[in-house]
C-alpha cells in the first residue's frame, strides 16, 4: 500500500507540474492558428486574380519568345499570374528546365518538390487539428484533482477557480482544433489548384 501511495503521489505531482506548460502550449496553439488564419486570408485574396487564360498566354509567350528581352517579359507575366512566391519560383524553374535535356524528368521533380513544400505548410494546421483538442482535454483533467481536493475540504474558491480553468481550456482547445481543421480543408483545395496550374503551364512549355 505504501508503494502504491508513493506511485500515486508521483503521478499526481507529475500532472500538477504539467499544468502551466499545458496552459502555455494551449495559448501558443491559439496564437499559431490565428496567424495561420491570417495567412489563409492573404492566400485567398491573392488567388482572386487567378485566370487560366492569363496563365496560358504567359506560358505560350515564354515558350515562343525569340529574344532574351521577350522571354524576360513573358516570365514576368508568368510570375505575376502566380498565386504565391513559391509558385512563381517554380514557374521560373520549370520554364528554364523545359528548354534543356531531360526536361520531362526535371520538370516532374520540380512539381513534386512544390507539392511536398505545400504538404509541409499543411502539416502545421493538421497537427493543430489533433493537438488543440488534446491540449484542451489535458487542461481540463489536470485542474480537476485540485478542484476535488477543494470540494473535499469545503474550499469553494479553490473548486471554482480550478473548474473555471478546466472549462475555459476545453473551449480553447476545441476552438483551435475546429479552426485548424477548416484552414486545412481550404488549403487542401487551394494547393491542389496550384499544382494543377503548374502542371498545365509545364505541359504548355514542353510543347514543341
UniProtKB/TrEMBL annotation:
InterPro entries in the cross-refs: ExbB/TolQ_transport, MotA_ExbB_proton_chnl
GO cellular component, one term: plasma membrane
Compartment(s) of residence: Cell membrane; Membrane
Sequence ranges assigned to domain MotA/TolQ/ExbB proton channel in this UniProt record: 111-183
Pfam families, A to Z: MotA_ExbB
Transmembrane stretches, start-end: 20-42, 127-145, 165-186
Domain of life: Bacteria
GO biological process: protein import
Family indicated by similarity: Belongs to the exbB/tolQ family.
Protein name as annotated: MotA/TolQ/ExbB proton channel family protein
Source species: Solirubrobacter ginsenosidimutans
Amino acid at each position: 500500500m505504501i508503494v502504491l501511495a508513493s506511485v500515486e503521489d508521483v503521478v499526481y505531482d507529475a500532472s500538477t507540474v504539467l499544468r502551466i506548460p499545458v496552459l502555455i502550449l494551449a495559448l501558443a496553439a491559439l496564437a499559431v492558428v490565428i496567424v495561420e488564419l491570417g495567412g489563409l486570408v492573404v492566400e485567398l485574396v491573392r488567388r482572386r486574380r487567378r485566370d487560366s487564360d492569363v496563365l496560358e498566354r504567359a506560358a505560350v509567350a515564354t515558350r515562343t519568345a525569340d529574344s532574351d528581352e521577350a522571354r524576360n517579359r513573358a516570365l514576368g507575366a508568368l510570375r505575376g499570374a502566380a498565386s504565391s512566391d513559391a509558385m512563381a519560383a517554380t514557374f521560373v524553374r520549370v520554364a528554364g528546365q523545359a528548354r534543356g535535356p531531360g526536361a520531362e524528368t526535371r520538370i516532374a521533380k520540380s512539381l513534386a518538390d512544390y507539392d511536398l513544400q505545400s504538404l509541409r505548410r499543411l502539416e502545421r494546421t493538421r497537427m493543430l487539428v489533433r493537438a488543440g483538442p488534446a491540449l484542451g482535454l489535458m487542461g481540463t483533467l489536470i485542474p480537476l484533482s485540485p478542484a476535488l481536493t477543494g470540494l473535499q475540504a469545503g474550499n469553494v474558491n479553490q473548486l471554482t477557480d480550478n473548474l473555471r480553468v478546466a472549462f475555459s481550456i476545453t473551449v480553447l482547445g476545441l476552438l483551435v482544433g475546429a479552426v485548424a481543421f477548416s484552414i486545412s480543408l481550404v488549403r487542401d483545395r487551394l494547393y491542389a489548384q496550384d499544382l494543377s496550374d503548374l502542371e498545365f503551364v509545364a505541359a504548355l512549355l514542353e510543347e514543341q
